[in-house]
Amino acid sequence: MLHKTPIILAIESSCDDTAAAVIKGRKILSNCIANQEIHIAYGGVVPELASRAHQSKIVPVVQQALRKANIDKKDLTAIAYTQGPGLLGSLLVGSAFAKSIALALDIPLIPINHMQGHLLVHFIDDERIQTPAFPCLGVTVSGGHTQLVLMHDQFKMEILGTTLDDAIGEAFDKCGKRMGLPYPSGPQIDKLAKEGNPHRFTFPIPNLPGYDVSYSGVKTAVINFLSNQEQKDPNFIKLNRNDLCASIQYTLVQIILTKIVKVVKEKKLSHIIIGGGVAANSEIRTQLQNIALKEGWIVSLPPFEYTTDNAAMIGIAAYYKIQKEEFGGFGDPSNARLKYGL
Fold it and tell me: What is the DSSP string of 42-96?
């Protein structure tokens, strides 16, 4: 067992952000991220370019995290890293670095599930965060995942529903790309939607049984609608961009909100936590807070710096792993499709 207050260096490299954080106990001392702007030109993440960029950025971002935390590497008591899910090449860069430094310092190594990390940011010691009570509903909304998870404790998580095709963030990006917006399009749509009418255009909301969601249908409907309108007026998108963004955003958010309400009522829960990049979206935040106020539920929304991929979420997950005395080994493989509980 490590001493009472562990000091953890956490590394996150699951996709296109190279991140490092230092956490002491549950307190974040530093949380540094190096973005990869090279993907903007391609309208999406290119896996090979992502893994190469991680190789050049990981040493500087770790040095920055240690310097900002005012921690010498010799003071570290554990190294945590993202084991999966994610892009395999990107995961391997973070894994190799983490294993190397843990071996050099002769300290424990802790592999972390990226998806659990997104939800566990709500347990960081931060006055802006309301620590959840179990059981609660965890909702992960990002570019690669859309999941509804029943959380019994920090690691006992039961997936109740997931997307059957596209993730919500992917739908935002693909609709935005069709409208000529830069990548990533989600923040752009959110910004323009504030000046638009969310009920100007109507797009289909799938009626799936259970708690699963689907975004491919609405994405296709939007693309076909835009193509048809442009045949009548080539300037249609330009003339209606704000209303289009508002209507698309409203529809995408309603799809997941409908399932959230269904889960909470049927499972008799009262606390909802949300994580992932789309948790920064103003529409989903506003709608969730409105529903919570009406129903008497508690909704915990993470500070914006903990929504996108970051290493603080890996660090807090590692803290709870240490409390359970669960450590990894140097032979643990990176897993692009890592599931909960593995």
Answer: GTS--HHHHHHHHHHHHHHHHHHHHHHHT--GGG--EEEEEEESS-HHHHHHHHH
Question: Quick one: 293 and 241 in the same domain?
Answer: yes
3-state helix, strand, coil in the chain (%, to 5): 45, 20, 35
pLDDT in tens, 97-145: 999 999 999 999 999 999 999 999 999 999 999 899 999 999 999 988 9
Instruction: Say if residue 56 is in the same domain as residue 141.
Output: no
Domain limits for position 268 = 131-301
Q: Sheet harboring 7-12: ordered strands across?
A: 27-34, 18-24, 7-12, 78-84, 109-113
CA distance 215 to 7: 41
Burial of 271 (0-12, 13-18, 19+ CB in 10 A): buried
- In 3D, which of 340, 342, 304, 328 has the Cα closest to residue 11? 328
Closest CA to 308 of 68, 151, 141, 58: 141
CATH number, domain at 17? 3.30.420.40
180 and 266 in a single domain? The answer is yes
The burial class, CB within 10 Å (0-12 / 13-18 / 19+), for 68 is middle
User: What confidence tens digit (pLDDT) does each residue in 36-90 have?
Assistant: 566 565 566 777 777 888 788 999 999 999 999 999 999 999 999 999 999 999 9
Q: Is residue 239 part of a domain?
A: yes
End-to-end CA distance of the chain: 22
The model's pTM: 0.93
In this predicted structure, what is the pLDDT of residue 102?
Answer: 97
| Stretch (H or E) spanning 287 | helix 282-295
Partnered with residue 130 across adjacent β-strands are none
Residue 38 has a pLDDT of 61
